[in-house]
Design brief:
Blueprint lengths: L3 H17 L9 H9 L3 E6 L7 E6 L4 E7 L8 H16 L2 H7 L5 H16 L2 H5 L5 H8 L3 H17 L2 H15 L2
Parallel strand pairs: 1-3
Antiparallel strand pairs: 2-3
Bound molecules: zinc ion.
Length: about 180
């Protein structure tokens, strides 16, 4: 489970990037974002990979470049939403410093790192404020944010349980930050 300290770091990182990328509308299409803002840091290639992986990423510490290999066999139209999430997940590993962190320690489990990258991707592609202002319809939201309905379902559970735990003061602060970031 991700600590509240790390959750805060993830949401701050997401908010910074949304600002930096000038995200004004949804869905966020990851291939364009990565090409535009990480052209020199991320190389995306489509390769024929045997097996079930959608995306494989490899960090080259010498050149500080991440190679993202997309499985050619997994890019049919109905898998595009999953691919979008996978690319956001890989961006999460990069911006949360997982590769450098992982090279220097083995105290944190790989599962934990994966959980953080998934959390990053969910927050990045489906920002909480943008999510809760819309009616809850899984299929429709899945098209709006271009993620699978599984991601929408999980996001719904997370947002609800976290909001329940928040104090009135925290909620007020969240709204102020949203107003600053998204003008809502
Ligand atoms: Zn990962």
């Amino acid at each position: 489970m991700i600590s509240s300290y790390r959750l805060n770091i993830i949401s701050v990182k997401v908010q910074e990037l949304h600002k930096q990328f000038n995200i004004a509308e949804f869905p966020i299409k990851m291939p364009q974002i990565l090409k535009k803002f990480y052209g020199d840091k991320i190389v995306i290639k489509q390769v024929d990979i045997q097996g079930s992986a959608d995306v494989v990423a490899n960090y080259d510490s010498i050149h500080d470049v991440t190679a993202i290999i997309i499985n050619k066999n997994r890019t049919s139209p109905h898998l595009h939403k999953r691919l979008n999430f996978s690319l956001a997940h890989e961006l999460g590993h990069i911006v949360l410093g997982h590769y450098k962190f992982y090279a220097s320690t083995n105290k944190v489990s790989l599962d934990y790192i994966e959980e953080e990258a998934n959390e990053f991707a969910a927050q990045f592609l489906v920002p909480e404020r943008q999510f809760i202002i819309r009616p809850y319809d899984e299929k429709w939201l899945s098209d709006i944010f271009f993620v699978s309905t599984e991601v929408i379902k999980k996001r719904y559970e997370h947002v609800n349980s976290r909001n329940k735990a928040k104090s009135t003061e925290q909620k007020k602060l969240d709204m102020m930050i949203d107003k600053y970031l998204f003008d809502v």
